[in-house]
Design brief:
It contains two helices and 52 strands. The chain is mainly β. The radius of gyration is 42 Å and the shape is rod-shaped. The relative contact order is 0.07.
């Protein structure tokens, strides 16, 4: 008997000595793909039978799981031993055997750190974690967990105390896997919570990213161990995760009641890995020997993949990279008309709460419609900023085009960072509300602000004019722009459409002003479009927004391919008034008056002398491109029509006729031997003033005068 005891003590001495010298490996242990898996924690309300060991003490199975491992499968399980006595209970007196349904025995071993737990203090509960290599086909419901006690009076040196078995199926007593749970790290309780998850497909592979929040609920700070993190699909296939940051969690300090975040990612997953159910496995590498390293399961968390968990419009999302932690917030979604397409635009604010400015990340984006259709988007920075200042958001617009007839019910916006030429990292996803073509509406007299940093301005419609050549009609809307910056600034590029009450859109051409505006300076822009002669201007509105080209706000020479911050504006009532005299005739910003009109006629020549006075509202910067002034002489029977066409202020050539600011005398001369025969009456004639725009005319004023008289 003494021989048996001595041998057992010698074995335990070797066992304890080797456990003290064991260290933990820092490398990642690979996982083989398995066909199935079992949840590991037994539901407390559905406990399996306990095995009593006397005096209110017992063994109970706390958790068990069979996981794929290199070369086969491994059973991991935890026994909780309760000491109901008033003195210490020696764990050295007991052991656990694993027996299969066929009678085969699998050798169970304690993990190294639990080998030091030789005793259970009086009235306490202590967990012991084991591992046992099993067959590839082993299931929990086929196993018996047999509790034995060393008995040296027996020929077998042990006595069986009791068995613990799972029902069939074993999952009937397993607790559901949840997204948040508390675990012990060191001796401190830490709450783990998976708060965000994304999965995206690029070509033939998948990439994923999740955010794990860790909150130390203990009373002292602890340093995070070097855990391994793994994705587990519904079929049991497992894929390693790595930290977004190079340092990962290895140096993360968890202070009491302070939540830390760990961003994890997996790239180049096969498309076949797509799963409705994903779990996060947290494992610790345990070195048993030079030849054996275990990836011991610490916790399994269910990853929330429901779209309802995706941040929505108005929510903020944190994104961590090597520069710092950014906040992204989708603030506004609009759907605006653009020729035969619609433009989807989301206003995205990028900010942070760090002490120093951060560089602006290289952003990419796309919209996902109804969960499947991907529409690439352009990211346009609308604030003039070289970085992201502390506490000050920098705004960008995310713009994409879809056919205006294409129906879709759900929209998701995905924002990415372009890390390098070959790599992008997902920053955030936003679930957007249904978007319809419903623009902000401004009644006539209201102004639309431009609020980008360094670009403060406002604009509003002024006059509405109609020009014709008898065959077609040209509609022009004048728009006033005011610079609200404290420095001189370029005039913002704008794009506009005329919109009828029936939602028909007519694209416009813009006559731009290229000069910069001083503070509070104004410019008058002109938007025009050919419209059907029979089209009524009643209810007509101007759809107008800030022009963009490629991935920037349009410059002076750029052709716009989209617009942002579009609104609908009521237009002025069509200006159809015809001045009955030739005095104070306005075609904004000009005003002209004709005086001292007199005629002279002989058999070969007609002369019309007059004085004109041209004035201008000089506070407006304007462009006269395509614009002319026409002064017309018509005899009473309409057989003689003489048009004198002038450029305004400047002309392409020195020989071209033009009117200039101020008061000037002018003479119209026409040589024609047949004039006396054409003019049948020398009683009255008519003088008219037209504003010509892009070859079409608008009558401004007309007055009947007497021949050979002189007007005042």
């Amino acid at each position: 008997m003494k021989t048996f005891v001595s041998k057992r003590l010698l074995l335990w001495f070797i066992f304890i000595f080797t456990s003290v010298t064991i260290s933990y490996a820092s490398g990642t242990t690979a996982h083989a793909e398995g066909e199935s898996y079992l949840r590991d924690e037994i539901d407390p309300t559905l406990q399996l039978n306990q095995v009593p060991i006397g005096s209110g003490s017992s063994f109970e199975l706390k958790s068990a799981v069979v996981l794929p491992a290199d070369g086969g499968k491994t059973l991991y399980f935890t026994m909780t031993v309760t000491n109901g006595t008033g003195s210490k209970l020696s764990f050295l007196d007991y052991w656990v055997k694993i027996i299969s349904a066929s009678g085969a025995e699998f050798k169970a071993e304690l993990i190294p750190q639990d080998k030091l737990k030789k005793e259970i203090p009086a009235g306490q509960r202590v967990d012991y974690s084991f591992y046992a290599p099993v067959n590839d086909t082993t299931l929990l419901e086929e196993l018996t967990f047999r509790i034995t006690q060393w008995n040296y009076s027996s020929s077998e040196l042990e006595t069986s105390i009791g068995d613990i078995r799972f029902p069939d199926p074993a999952s009937a007593v397993m607790a559901p896997i949840v997204r948040s749970r508390s675990v012990l790290i060191g001796s401190m309780p830490v709450v783990l919570d998976v708060s965000r998850w994304s999965l995206q497909q690029k070509d033939s592979t998948l990439s994923s990213k999740l955010l794990l929040k860790l909150t130390n609920k203990g009373k002292a700070s602890i340093r995070m161990p070097a855990y391994q993190y793994t994705l587990r699909a519904a079929n049991g296939a497992m894929y390693p995760l790595e930290s977004v940051l190079e340092t990962g969690a290895a140096s993360m300090l968890l202070q009491p009641e302070v939540t830390e975040e760990l961003q994890l990612k997996a790239v180049h997953l096969p498309v076949s890995a797509a799963s409705e159910v994903w779990d996060l496995l947290i494992n610790q590498t345990v070195t048993v020997s030079n030849e054996l390293k275990l990836s011991y399961p610490m916790a399994a968390l269910r990853i929330p993949t429901d779209s309802s968990d995706i941040p929505q419009l108005g929510d903020s999302v944190e994104y961590l990279n090597s520069q710092g932690t950014y906040l992204l917030k989708a603030e506004k979604l609009s759907r605006t008309p653009w020729e035969d397409q619609d433009i989807l635009t989301t206003d995205l604010a990028v900010s942070h709460n760090q002490a120093d400015a951060l560089p602006f990340p290289a952003l990419k984006a796309y919209y996902e419609l109804d969960g499947g259709v991907v529409v690439e988007a352009k990211v346009i920075q609308t604030d003039r900023a070289v970085g992201v200042p502390p506490g000050v958001p920098v705004h960008v617009q995310v713009v994409a085009k879809v056919p205006y007839t294409y129906p879709f019910a759900q929209t998701k916006l995905v924002i990415e960072e372009k890390v390098n030429a070959n790599l992008t990292e997902e920053m955030a996803q936003f679930k957007l509300p249904p978007a319809s073509v419903k623009l902000p509406y401004l009644s006539y007299g209201e102004s639309q602000p431009i609020t980008g940093a360094g670009r403060a301005a406002q604009y509003a419609p002024r006059e509405l004019n109609l020009y014709t050549d008898g065959n077609s009609t040209l509609l022009e809307a004048q728009v006033e722009v005011v610079n609200l910056e404290k420095r001189s600034n370029s005039i913002p590029r704008l794009t506009a459409f005329f919109k009828t009450e029936e939602d028909a859109l007519y694209p416009t051409k813009i006559r731009e002003v290229k000069q910069k505006l001083n503070p509070q300076g104004k410019a008058l822009l002109s938007f025009s479009s050919k419209i059907p002669k029979e089209l009524s201007t009643k209810g007509l509105r101007l759809v107008i927004g800030e022009s963009v080209t490629e991935q920037r706000l349009s410059g002076v020479e750029d052709k716009a391919d989209a617009y942002i911050n579009a609104v609908e504006m009521d237009l002025a009532v069509l200006n159809e008034a015809i001045n009955p005299t030739l005095k104070d005739v306005t075609f904004y910003p000009y005003t002209i008056s004709l005086s001292n009109i007199q005629t002279w006629l002989d058999n070969k020549q007609l002369k019309v002398n007059f004085t004109y006075n041209l004035s201008k509202d000089s506070y407006y910067e304007t462009s006269n491109e395509g614009s002319k002034l026409v002064i017309q002489f018509t005899d009473s029977n309409g057989k003689v029509n003489i048009d004198e066409t002038f450029y305004l202020e400047t002309a392409p050539e020195d020989t071209d006729k033009r009117v200039t600011l101020g008061e000037h005398d002018y003479r119209i001369v026409r040589q024609d031997d047949t004039l006396l025969f054409k003019i049948e009456s020398l009683k009255q004639f008519k003088m008219s003033i037209y504003h010509e725009f892009q070859g079409k005319r608008k009558l401004l004023a007309s007055q009947v005068l007497d021949w050979f008289g002189v007007t005042k």
